[in-house]
Automatic annotation (TrEMBL):
EC number(s) given by UniProt: 1.1.1.267
Catalytic activity: 2-C-methyl-D-erythritol 4-phosphate + NADP(+) = 1-deoxy-D-xylulose 5-phosphate + NADPH + H(+)
Pathway: Isoprenoid biosynthesis; isopentenyl diphosphate biosynthesis via DXP pathway; isopentenyl diphosphate from 1-deoxy-D-xylulose 5-phosphate: step 1/6
Enzyme class: oxidoreductase
Gene source species: Keguizhuia sedimenti
Protein name, per record: 1-deoxy-D-xylulose 5-phosphate reductoisomerase
Gene name of the encoded protein: ispC
Record bears the keyword Nucleotidyltransferase: no
Pfam families to which the protein is assigned, alphabetical: DXP_redisom_C, DXP_reductoisom, DXPR_C
Source taxonomy: Bacteria, Pseudomonadati, Pseudomonadota, Betaproteobacteria, Burkholderiales
Cofactor dependency: Mg(2+); Mn(2+)
Molecular function via GO: 1-deoxy-D-xylulose-5-phosphate reductoisomerase activity
Xref: InterPro entries: DXP_reductoisomerase (IPR003821), DXP_reductoisomerase_C (IPR013644), DXP_reductoisomerase_N (IPR013512), DXPR_C (IPR026877), DXPR_C_sf (IPR036169), NAD(P)-bd_dom_sf (IPR036291)
Similarity remark: Belongs to the DXR family.
Domain 1-deoxy-D-xylulose 5-phosphate reductoisomerase N-terminal: 4-132
Source superkingdom: Bacteria
Length: 393
C-alpha cells in the first residue's frame, strides 16, 4: 500500500490524481491533502478519501475546515501554512508525494519531499525551473525517486532507456541525439497577431485540447509553458538547450519524442488526459488502468508537425536564453512570468504585454550562480518586486 500526500489536491492535477487513486483502493491510500482556497471542496475530498492530515492556507480556514470535518465525524487533523505543507511532504507516514501546487508556492514542500527521499511525482514544473541543480542535488543526496508527470516529460521518460531515465541524467552510450518536445500551439496558434493585444483572459484560458488550471493555460497561450518545459527537460534529462527541440503538433496525440543517433525516433501516444501520465508515475515501474481509453488510431485523420513561430510566441526564446545564461536567470524568468500572468488575469496588462514585461525584467537581471535555497528565495522576492514596479497601477 502506497501512502500518498497530494500537494494541491483541489487543482486540476490533484483531482485527476484522486480519480486514478480511487480506482485502485488496494494499492493507494491518502495520507494528506492540501488546498489553498477551496475549503468546501477540500472537505468533500476528506469525506471521500479520509486522509490523516489536511492542510489549508490560513488559520481562519483551519477553523472552517475543522468544523466541517467534525460535523462529518472525521478524525482528520487540520493544519495550515508552508511549514505544514513541508511536514506532510516529508512525513514518515507518507511514501509518495504528488507535487501539484501551481508556481513557486510549491517549491518548499516539493524540496522537503526531495530531501526526505520520497517518491516524487512532479507536476509543479516551476519548482524545478526555479531551483534547478539545487533541487536535483537534493534528489541525488537523499536517493529520492523523481518521476515526471508533465505529459511531455512523462512521454520522454517512457521513450528513454530505463537506466537513463531513472538516473535523470545522460550517460555515454545511449545514443540519444535530441529530445523533441511537442506543443499544441495553444488557442492562438493561427489567430491574427495584430489582434493579440485584445485577447481576454477568458479566451486565453480556453485551451483547445487540455483542461488545466488558469496559470498554466495562460502559459500555454503564450507558449511560456513550453519554454518552462525546455528548462524542466534540461534538468530531468541532462541535455543542453540546443538538443531540446520544440515541435508544434496541434493534435496533441504524440506527447513528445526522443530522437536517437541511428535515425530512430521513439514517441509516446495517448489521449490528452493527464490521468495517463499520472497513472504511469503512480505505478512505475508497473502499469495500472488510468480510466482513459487508448487512442483509436483509425480515427486519427492527421498528425501534423511544424516549427514554432518565434514572432508569434517570443516567450519561447526568452526561456531558451534563460537556460543558456543559467544561474539565477531561469528563476528570474519564472518569477517575472508568474507576476505577469497574474497581472494579465486581473486585467492590469494586455496579453502581448506579458512578453514585454518579462523581457524588460530579464534585461535587468544580472546573471549569477545561486549557492543556496535561501539565496534563491531572496532573489525570487526581489525580482517579483521589480516586476510589479513595472506594472502600471
Ligand atoms: P490549479 O490551479 O488547477 O491547482 C493548483 C493547486 O495549487 C490548487 O489545489 C491550489 O489550492 C494550490 N495552490 C495554489 N496556490 C497555492 C499556494 N500559494 N499555496 C499552497 N497551495 C496553493 O493548477 P493545475 O493546472 O493543477 O497545475 C498544477 C501544477 O501542475 C502547475 O505547476 C502546472 O504547471 C502543472 N501541470 C499541470 C497540468 C494540467 O494539465 N493541469 C499539466 C502539466 C503540468
Ligand atoms: Mg506539459
Amino acid at each position: 500500500m502506497q501512502r500518498i500526500t497530494i500537494l494541491g489536491a483541489t487543482g486540476s492535477i490533484g483531482m485527476s490524481t484522486l480519480d486514478v487513486i480511487e480506482r485502485h483502493p488496494d494499492r493507494y491510500s491518502v495520507y494528506a491533502l492540501t488546498a489553498y482556497r477551496k475549503v468546501d471542496e477540500l472537505a468533500d475530498l476528506c469525506r471521500r478519501f479520509r486522509p490523516q492530515v489536511a492542510v489549508v492556507g490560513t488559520a481562519a480556514q483551519t477553523a472552517e475546515l475543522n468544523q466541517l470535518l467534525r460535523a462529518a465525524d472525521l478524525p482528520t487533523e487540520v493544519t495550515y501554512g508552508e511549514s505544514a505543507l513541508c511536514n506532510v511532504a516529508a512525513a514518515d507516514d507518507c511514501d509518495t508525494v504528488m507535487a501539484a501546487i501551481v508556481g513557486a508556492a510549491g517549491l518548499a514542500p516539493t524540496l522537503a519531499a526531495a530531501r526526505a527521499g520520497k517518491k516524487i511525482l512532479l507536476a509543479n514544473k516551476e519548482a524545478l525551473v526555479m531551483s534547478g541543480h539545487l533541487f536535483m542535488d537534493a534528489v541525488h543526496v537523499s536517493g529520492a525517486t523523481l518521476l515526471p508527470v508533465d505529459s511531455e516529460h512523462n512521454a520522454i521518460f517512457q521513450c528513454l532507456p530505463t537506466n537513463y531515465a531513472e538516473r535523470n541524467q545522460q550517460s555515454a552510450g545511449h545514443g540519444v541525439a535530441k529530445i523533441l518536445l511537442t506543443a499544441s500551439g495553444g488557442p492562438f496558434r493561427s489567430r491574427d497577431i495584430d489582434t493579440f493585444s485584445s485577447i481576454t483572459p477568458e479566451e486565453a484560458v480556453s485551451h483547445p485540447n487540455w483542461v488545466m488550471g488558469r496559470k498554466i493555460s495562460v502559459d500555454s497561450a503564450t507558449m511560456m509553458n513550453k519554454g518552462l518545459e525546455v528548462i524542466e527537460a534540461h534538468w530531468l534529462f541532462g541535455l543542453p538547450g540546443p538538443r531540446i527541440e520544440v515541435v508544434i503538433h496541434p493534435q496533441s496525440v504524440i506527447h513528445s519524442m526522443v530522437s536517437y543517433v541511428d535515425g530512430s525516433i521513439l514517441a509516446q501516444l495517448g489521449n490528452p488526459d493527464m490521468r495517463v501520465p499520472i497513472a504511469h508515475a503512480l505505478a512505475y515501474p508497473e502499469r495500472i488502468s488510468s480510466g482513459v481509453e487508448s487512442v483509436d488510431l483509425t480515427k486519427i485523420v492527421q498528425l501534423a508537425f511544424f516549427q514554432p513561430d518565434h514572432a508569434r510566441f517570443p516567450c519561447l526564446k526568452l526561456a531558451y536564453d534563460a537556460l543558456d545564461m543559467g544561474g539565477i536567470v531561469p528563476a528570474g524568468l519564472n518569477a517575472a512570468n508568474e507576476i505577469a500572468v497574474d497581472a494579465f488575469l486581473n486585467r492590469k496588462i494586455r496579453f502581448n504585454e506579458i512578453y514585454s514585461l518579462i523581457d524588460r525584467v530579464m534585461n535587468k537581471i544580472v546573471p549569477k550562480e545561486i549557492g543556496s535555497i535561501e539565496e534563491l528565495i531572496e532573489e525570487d522576492k526581489r525580482i517579483r518586486k521589480l516586476t510589479i514596479s513595472f506594472i502600471p497601477s
